[in-house]
Design a protein that fits this description.
Oligomer: single chain
Strand order of the largest sheet: 1-4-7-5-8-9-10-11
Helix content: 25-40%
CATH topology of the largest domain: Rossmann fold
Radius of gyration: 21 Å
Strand content: 15-25%
CATH class of the largest domain: Alpha Beta
Largest sheet: 8 strands, mixed
CATH superfamily of the largest domain: Alpha/Beta hydrolase fold, catalytic domain
Number of strands: 11
Amino acid sequence: MAKIHLLTGSLKAVKNSGVQCVFLLALLMMSWSLYAQQVVNLYPGTAPGSENWNWEEKEFFVKEPMNANVVYNVSKPTLTVFLPKDVPANGSAVLLIPGGGFRLVNMDHEGNKLAKELNAKGYTAFVLKYRVAHSLTDDPFKELMQIMADSSRRKSYLPVIELALNDAKKAMKHIRENAAQYGINPGKISVAGFSAGGTLALQLATDNDSDTKPDLVALVYTVFDSTRSKIPANVPPAFIASASDDKLANPKNSINLYNSWKDAGKNAELHIYAVGGHGLKAGNAPTWIKRFMDWMHQNGF
């Protein structure tokens, strides 16, 4: 904050000069902006594939089970940058991909909150807000529950999942291409995906594109069908976490992921909490983020 003290003292000397005061005020605002979160638009104009999306993005508070603010009707994907400010940056980064069943994005609990916890340990964090399906009402969570109860409607999600995956790839490319600007090592970029976001993180980890493949991946209460998907041998090390009482993503998914990773001959760590639900909020489950950071540190990140 030394810059602010310097500018405050300078204002006394030039208080009679309107031009100089305006100039110093501008500098003061610039110094404050160094500590603000930066929001990056992933595409210079309209995101390819959603040229006809004209609905308005909105926020909604979901009481149970999320107890968090979510966004829906997302048509303009963004990346929010969280830079460490109270501790030295350690040169490693984590891209956080929140969940929401591709109907909403849980930016609070699975994004901004975790980004600040990562910052406190020196990690640079990025929160992805990706495109989701259009909600026809102002209760996107209710719509999501209705669709989850009707398996015949789930196929309608496939086009938007592809667009969301494109957003995740675009985010990874942006982070890696601008690593020097953010003060991070381009070879130390992890991805943590939650629920539907875990589906996107899993796709990045199993893809062959070196520009978008993470160096480490965390798959948190992620759905995975081992009978339909095979994990290739070129995946990065994986951290996997879920809860035994998760009613939306059976913990067997996490067990299957772990076994598939080990079958591919790759490093994996598995945590299944007795209590935590879908969101790992109860009991000891919230400590998963500490275990994840311990694991990253053990892997040299």
